[in-house]
Specification:
The chain has about 650 residues and is of the alpha/beta class. The protein is about 45% helix and about 15% strand.
Length: about 650
């Protein structure tokens, strides 16, 4: 973070010609914001992304693992004959029962389905009966590469490794008393066709172990999307599609299972498979995700759900999230392809928030179309196939728990808990970061401009007086250099003003020097410079002070101006009298420290010689403090004017 801040500062100075002090303070503001975001569970890989979060108008989120817990549990089994079973138990622990149905009527039908679920599988699920659960040894959803994930069970500690879908299927088999090691020893695997999003199914080929179950010599086990598997089944029963859709409409993730006896490992299943049935899994929503999506909507941020699940399943989840209410609001990969070919994808994506049966390559198309529609897009992803979309996004957000190294390298931010609620918190901090950058820039620019105007006016006009044939400068160069710095850095620590997520996102094209910033900067600089020059003139001409005494008093007035003006900078629309100084202790400390440093400069001999300062009588100090209140009065009047005629857009 420190290195990133330093590089930004150096780049601003060398490439853009900004001052070292300005760029340092700008970078400090971003670094502080990055630290705040990190405290929310976000790892910042590129510092500029923190400020960019304030412009986010659309979050394109994966469903599994981000909106849901990514801990699948089989809840229902429907055989091809129509016999239905319910399944108890939670998570990947193989504890629970397969209930209901008619075991006698189903015969070997259920056994064949469970066998296929276990054989067409790449996961591992074991129970260590020699271990017992201890306090703190709780279940969790592990990353696929985590071999030590554990869950306590009544008879020992369960451990798993692999894809969540495969783990759920193995847990289903264990509830029927089937172990993967025993089943695979009877049906050794000869060849495997791994699952791919484009293929939408996986298949494994097994030798039959001489049990005579397949006259062809090999048993092929297939699992995949119902519509894909049904198309490969020659004996698909009438109503099978309706059975799958009925399960999906209940919010279940549905897999179809099929098998066949084959003579070789050639991948040609057209009409040759035997449908065994369907399993319906539930992947519950993460706690707080409904509230997080609602917070996004309140903040003017759209949320799009992108999933490979069946459209009916996606709609069921979308209803819970408040993203869609009817099937017409759910787009499929086929719809995306059609609109891509017609060149209307940008308009289509702008109106659609739920995408189902989406291939990884289409996720990139959706992101590009959203950007073409004018959105500032944050994309979540965890897999290798998500990397192109993460790079294309304005802000790529990788999953830290279940994400791959490729996804993390392609992203600007990494979410440690894989929760969209954390992204919403990061967006809030991003808006605060942008607000604080504006505050620091405003304070730096307005106070610097005030000093430039004071010195420039004297040089150009010769007013207020000429002494011994030379212009009397109101401030010496060294005095002008030491009047700011501490307050500006402290302002970067300013907390959120409140209701940050109730404001609409700022337009990505909005410049930091907008009309409000320019009006406030010019007005405050004019007030400080005119009042300062007038006070300097009065000291010389009417109070009959010496030049040195007048400069000394003006320097203190400038310090008062800046310490009071930092209060004006805390909010662009809220009154300074509504913001308690105690809610920002770092800023209060910075102001007191800056004032204390100047008091030391007035009384310490060596600083007196360097800065030309000297003690000032208390009545004069009180008078100068009162004069400095003019900048507060001017800013308060401007805030009233702006809120009345332009609306409190940043309140």
């Amino acid at each position: 973070m420190v290195v990133s801040a330093g590089l930004i500062a150096i780049g601003g100075v060398l490439l853009r010609g900004y001052g070292w002090v300005d760029m340092f303070q700008f970078s400090v503001a971003l670094a502080i914001a990055s630290s705040r975001v990190s405290g929310r569970g976000v790892i910042v890989r590129r510092l500029a992304a923190v400020e960019g979060l304030g412009s986010c108008t659309l979050i394109a989120s994966d469903k599994t693992g981000t909106l849901t817990c990514n801990e699948l549990t089989v809840r229902r089994v429907v055989l091809a004959s129509g016999i239905e079973f319910s399944v108890t138990g939670e998570g990947y622990a193989g504890e629970g029962k397969i209930e209901g149905g008619d075991r006698h009527a189903s015969g070997t039908e259920l056994e064949d389905l469970l066998r296929t679920a276990i054989l067409c599988n790449e996961a591992e699920l074991e129970c260590d009966t020699d271990r017992t659960a201890v306090a703190g040894d709780t279940g969790h959803t592990p990353a696929a590469e985590d071999p030590d994930a554990t869950r306590p069970g009544t008879g020992g500690v369960w451990s798993w490794q692999g894809d969540p879908t495969d783990e759920a299927l193995l847990a289903l088999g264990r509830k029927a008393g089937l172990r993967r090691s025993e089943v695979t020893s009877q049906y050794p695997e000869e060849h495997a066709v791994p699952f791919e999003s484009e293929r939408q199914y996986a298949a494994t080929f097994h030798s039959c172990g001489g049990d005579g179950s397949s006259a062809e010599g090999l048993l092929v086990c297939v699992k995949g999307a119902p519509e894909k598997v049904l198309a490969m089944c020659g004996d698909a029963v009438p109503g099978a599609h309706r059975a799958a859709e009925a399960m999906a409409s209940d919010g279940l993730r549905v897999l179809a299972l099929a098998d066949a006896g084959v003579a070789s490992t050639e991948e040609n299943f057209d009409g040759t498979l035997r449908l065994l049935g369907f399993v319906g899994m539930i992947d519950p929503l993460r706690p707080g995700v409904v509230e997080a999506v609602a917070a996004c909507h309140d903040a003017g941020i759209g949320v799009s759900m992108i999933t490979g699940d069946h459209p009916v399943t996606a709609l069921a989840i979308a209803r819970e999230l408040g993203l869609a209410t009817d099937p017409g609001q759910v787009a499929t990969g086929k719809d995306v392809l059609e609109h891509t070919q017609e060149g209307t994808l940008a308009d289509f994506v702008a109106l659609t928030r739920v995408f189902a049966r989406i291939a990884p390559t289409q996720k990139l198309d959706i992101v590009e179309a959203a950007q073409a529609a004018g959105h500032f897009v944050a994309v979540t992803g965890d897999g290798v196939n998500d990397a192109p979309a993460l790079r294309q996004a304005n802000i790529g957000v990788a999953m830290g728990a279940a994400g791959t190294d490729v996804a993390r390298e392609a992203a600007e931010l990494v979410i440690t808990d894989d929760n969209i609620a954390t992204i919403v918190s990061a967006v809030e901090d991003g808006r605060v970061a942008y607000d604080n950058v504006r505050k620091v820039v405003f304070l730096l620019l307005s106070t610097g401009l005030a000093e430039v105007l004071m010195l420039g006016a004297v040089v150009v006009s010769g007013w207020p007086a000429v002494h011994d044939g030379s212009i009397i400068l109101p401030l010496l160069p060294v005095q002008a250099l030491v009047t700011n710095g501490i307050q500006d850095v402290a302002l970067a620590f300013e907390p959120a003003e409140g209701n940050v997520l109730l404001r609409p996102p700022r337009p990505p094209s909005e410049r930091i020097f907008d009309r409000l910033m320019l009006e406030r900067t010019i007005l405050s600089a004019l007030v400080m410079s005119i009042v300062g020059l007038a006070a300097f003139h009065w000291m010389l001409e009417y109070a009959d002070w010496s030049v040195e005494a007048s400069r000394n008093a003006l320097l203190l007035l400038v310090v008062f101006f800046e310490n009071m003006h930092v209060g004006n900078a805390r909010s662009e629309v809220a009154s300074i009298f509504r913001l308690s100084p105690l809610r920002s202790p770092i800023l209060l400390t910075g102001v007191l420290l800056a004032l204390g440093v100047h008091v030391l400069a007035m009384y310490m001999p060596w600083l007196q010689r360097v800065l030309g300062t000297s003690p000032i009588p208390v009545p004069h100090v009180v008078l100068l403090a009162g004069i400095a209140l003019t900048v507060v009065l001017a800013m308060e009047l401007h805030k009233v004017y702006w809120n009345r005629y332009h609306g409190a857009l940043r309140s």
